[in-house]
Amino acid sequence: VLLEKLLPIYHPDPVFLAYVVNDAEPSTAMPTPPEEVYRHSRSWFLTEVAERLNRKVFRRRILPSRKDNVGSDYLDGFEEGSVKWRDSREAIREMRDLCAAAGKPFAILMMPDFTQGFDERYGLLKIHSAVASWGRELNVPVFDLLTLLFRGEDHTKWLVPWDGHPNPEAHRRMAAFLVD
Questions:
Q1: 138 Cβ neighbours under 8 A, 6+ residues apart
Q2: Nearest-angstrom CA–CA distance, 156 and 147
Q3: How far is CA 20 from CA 28, 31, 70, 86, 114, in A?
Q4: Which end of the chain is more exposed for a tag (fewer CB within 10 A), N or C?
Q5: Chain-centroid distance, C-alpha 129
Q6: Which residues on neighbouring strands pair with residue 142, listed in sequence order?
Q7: Neighbour order of strands in the sheet with 142-144
Q8: What's the angle, vertex CA 92, arms to CA 28 and CA 94, rounded to 5?
Q9: Would you say the C-alpha torsion 173, 131, 85, 112 has a positive or negative sign?
């Protein structure tokens, strides 16, 4: 929806989606409207009953719930059959279609998790692989910055230590990649 509003305002040449490993998760920056939280549920009431019983009575997930919750493990959103996985892929398809209709090239920059080592310890390759697969299926170029720019390097050199996001030098490096 946001891209649909911004395309006619900014008239970008290409559009790049910087896909971050937690993009399949619901946003936590602002309160999520109920129509988003319960978009996969047939009944918000029954969903809340299941959630509360699981949490308070069973103390684990016994009853199924289709509530869109934020997960602590980003990989959960990429399990087979996950609605988060389907929603994220569908959002990419919609962006691709919007850009095609506007005559704008669309590509994905797969961002690494800057809090993890950029070596064999990196634990989120499943997400990188899924996004690369979506790109192939949807005919969208995917540039995996972990592989192209950062593989094997000391991740602490590129991160803001107190919040885990890329530092200004990492942003300069990514911008230089886009320009080249």
A1: 89, 92, 93, 96
A2: 17
A3: 14, 20, 15, 16, 10
A4: C
A5: 13
A6: 108
A7: 15-19, 106-110, 142-144
A8: 110
A9: negative
pLDDT in tens, the chain (180 residues): 789 999 999 999 999 999 988 877 665 556 666 666 565 667 767 776 776 777 788 887 776 665 555 555 677 767 777 777 888 889 999 999 999 999 999 999 999 999 889 998 899 999 999 999 999 999 999 999 999 989 889 999 999 988 889 999 999 999 999 988
Structure tokens at 16: 């790049």
Query: What is the phi-psi region of residue 121: left when phi exceeds 0, alpha when psi lies from -120 to 50, beta otherwise?
Result: alpha
Euclidean distance between CA atoms 96 and 113, whole angstroms:
24
Residue with tokens 């005559």: 103
